[in-house]
Specification:
- With about 280 residues, this protein is an alpha/beta fold.
- It has 13 helices and six strands.
- The longest helix has 19 residues, at about 5-25.
- The mean pLDDT is about 90.
Length: about 280
């Protein structure tokens, strides 16, 4: 299998095409489910790309939608086959946010608002280890080590020599003051943020305490955008037991406007660097 085939993205594109065929036929997901003797939730999961889809599923759906062009059927069947392949992250076992990793791996740009900690793509190993252990105190050491390795592997997207992920991060000032690991870990972490923020495709802004109530007061979220026009933008909201993916244009637009407000309320790039640099020096003492 070619290394540039992302199973998560293939599932998503396949689901979008199946939804389009259903809508062209003028059928609801409930009607399709009744025809195939399956649950409506299965049809919904197939269309939103959150569930692996078999070639048999594609064949049955194309039959319901009366797709006569065999080339279309063959193309969808191949997408289903590709979508069942495994991405690099599957080598680490069961990862709760594997859907997100698949999207991040294929994204062209990523905007993140992080109110509590330094965002994962900018974390050093010691900081990541402290975050994972603190956030999952009942998990085994082996599971925590796996999560750290996955997080560090994800960072290859921002260090790639060709087509690196364009990253814009708004960090709440609280993330800079929260001592994770130790003061030495924090010093090294903030110095790492400063170093990465010098890269042309990475922008870091700090939302200062003095702003008070702001557009991101409800918590962390990310906006992923893709180079292929066929792939709609996605808002990702991380949860403890489940994650939320928003793809409807209205929802994406609302979070995009919120992010613009956050950027406007934050310190500019140079002011942010000076604050991070000052705090890094304070952690050295």
């Amino acid at each position: 299998m070619a290394s540039n085939v992302n199973p998560t993205v293939r599932r998503r594109r396949l689901g979008q095409e199946l939804r389009r065929l259903r809508e062209l036929k003028g059928m609801t997901a409930e009607e399709v489910a009744e025809r195939l003797l399956v649950s409506q939730s299965k049809i919904s999961r197939l269309e939103n790309g959150r569930r692996s889809i078999s070639q048999r599923d594609v064949r049955d759906l194309c039959g319901v939608y009366e797709v006569e062009d065999q080339r279309i059927v063959d193309s969808l069947m191949q997408m289903a086959k590709d979508s069942r392949q495994q991405g690099w992250w599957h080598a680490f076992g069961d990862i709760p946010y594997s859907v997100y990793i698949g999207l991040e791996t294929d994204a062209e740009s990523l905007r993140v608002y992080e109110p509590q900690i330094i965002t994962g793509l900018l974390q050093t190993r010691p900081y990541a280890e402290a975050i994972v252990q603190g956030g999952s105190p009942e998990s085994s050491e082996q599971d925590n080590d796996k999560r750290v390795e996955v997080r560090l592997r994800r960072q290859s997207r921002i260090t790639a020599e060709q087509d690196p992920l364009r990253l814009w991060v708004v960090l709440d000032e609280a993330a800079l003051h929260r001592v994770v690991g130790s003061r030495q870990v924090m010093r090294e972490q903030l110095e790492h943020v400063l170093e990465l923020s010098q890269l042309p495709h990475i922008t870091v802004q700090v939302l200062p305490f003095e702003v008070g109530a702001h557009a991101g007061i409800n918590g962390q979220y990310s906006i992923l955008e893709f180079a292929d026009a066929a792939d709609s933008s996605v808002v990702y909201i991380e949860g403890v037991t489940s994650d939320l993916y928003l793809e409807k244009p209205h929802d994406v637009q609302k979070y995009t406007v919120m992010y613009e407000h956050l950027r406007a309320q934050s310190l500019n790039v140079e002011q942010s660097r000076r604050l991070v640099e000052r705090l890094a020096k304070e952690y050295a003492h």
